[in-house]
Amino acid sequence: MPDVVVYTSDNCSFCDRAKMLLAKRNVPFEEVRLERWDHEGRVALADRTGRTTLPQIIIGGAAIGGFDELHALDGTGTLARMLSRE
User: Fold this and answer.
1) Neighbouring C-beta atoms of residue 22, cutoff 10 Å
2) Which CATH superfamily is 4-84 part of?
3) End-to-end distance of the chain based on CA atoms, in angstroms?
């Protein structure tokens, strides 16, 4: 199963939704909590993922986006296919 990393911050409802969706699918993931969510934090996230919004989800080294993209991948079955690769 590919490694899954979720970048989050406190008080982020979409971060919570992404983590709940992954947990519901029994997908183990590493959570990286960004304590500094200021300009520097956004620049650091953009360097890692190409985006400056949270959450940001990385699957197997590929940035897939935030909760909306994760939810869409789940709805089409693409998420399951992505996670079944070794």
Assistant:
1) 21
2) Glutaredoxin (3.40.30.10)
3) 5
